[in-house]
Amino acid sequence: MVRIGKLVVIGVGLIGGSFALAMKRSGGAESVVGVGRGRSNIEAAHRLGIVDRGFVLDDAWTAELGDADLVFLAPPVGQMPSLLAAIAPHLGLQTLITDAGSTKQDVVAAARTLLGSALPRFVPGHPIAGTEHSGATAAFDALFRDKQVVLTPLLETDATALTRVAECWTRCGATVRRLDPARHDAILSAVSHLPHTLAFALIADLAARADANDCFDLAGTGLRDFTRLASSHPGMWRDICLANRDALRRDLASYRDRLQRIDALLDARDGEALLALFTRAHSARDAWVERQSGGDEV
Prior knowledge:
alpha/beta; Rossmann fold; 6-phosphogluconate dehydrogenase C-terminal fold; six-stranded parallel beta sheet; three-stranded mixed beta sheet
């Protein structure tokens, strides 16, 4: 299996930190250099053994890129263009680059503009895994075990680069599949970006009510389970929603139509039609859960 001599992780949070831990503990990486925005988070990553050396973006960290075997980009997607611009002049001639962004068309467009001759060694990716927690302290080496990772290679992507990045994810315990970037964004809008938006919207609506305290006091596990995603990092999800806004707006419109249909059934007191809708949804969810072995993506 693939073995990485030097891994540079930019963005040592839940995803980047978990990738580093999984690679180190599986024997897939000899050393890990971490780079991030916050010094306290980088210090925590070093203390927890996630990275062997750490830098903040204000340090002279780009010197670490020349002899790196793999650079793993795991910042919020809104920061990806500036990071690609920062790393491009310093990458070694053999250095592979991959990312973990939840959107792919915007990342691919930025890479085409900014990576220059390194573009064939860039393998866009997205692990379908996560929790509502963030930061290095949330990282754990089993995060990707039995989860899917989507790679969206370009026409220019070097076959060896694609194979090596895929093998890294296999080392982490993941199952790798490939998708076109636009198809990835369309699917993830429906099954991830829309649910997060709905969770944030529902909590925002409840919190704005005059009787918000009573509502939250009487809420049980149903509300907690439905809105777990609203505990996710707000800035990260702002960036994701804006990056995939066209697909997300289409899905919001479709969901809005479904809600209006339910409202019409309630207005008509049409219990039979409401029962049929709920039954179809119940059966569809049960069938989906039966096919799945992993958890939700955050």
